[in-house]
Amino acid sequence: MSSSILATVDPARGRVDARTRDGHPIAMDADPPHGSSSAADPKDALLAAPAGCTAMDVAAILRKKRQRASTYEIAVSADSAEEHPRMFTAITVEHVVSGEVQPEALRRSIELSSTRYCPVNAMLSKSVTIEHRYRLTDAGGVETQALVSVVGPDGSRVL
After folding, report:
1. In which element (H, E) is residue 126 found?
2. Strand pairing category for 25-28 and 15-20
3. Predicted model pTM
4. Which helix H or strand E contains 132, and what residues bound it?
């Protein structure tokens, strides 16, 4: 399977409007003075990719395990190097879930996504360390938090 993007650049504004091979739009822009901040900057757009990739995996695995999440959000944060090209030096992916979900089912779903299924995670982890964690609030309001895995150029650890 191949992927392709066609991007149109507005040189005066610095905005990039891209489309996937299926026609789905992706807009990017930079902060002033190089852009008008009308869309996500490319590094933010890049951080959205592991969120989307792992969310689809984890949601599908939870459904197969008959776990009923009532809410599911993913928060992705990253540290960047001070010098150009200001690459990411560390990424944290936090799954924030509530509902009738067993902690072990959520932990295993995240583990499978982060170490086996998510191609975006696999690509990024070749150059940056990525922590995967969760915060689960069960149906009774009890919160559980855990670090699930750390993957990166030095290998992976499942906790």
Report:
1. none
2. antiparallel
3. 0.91
4. strand 129-138
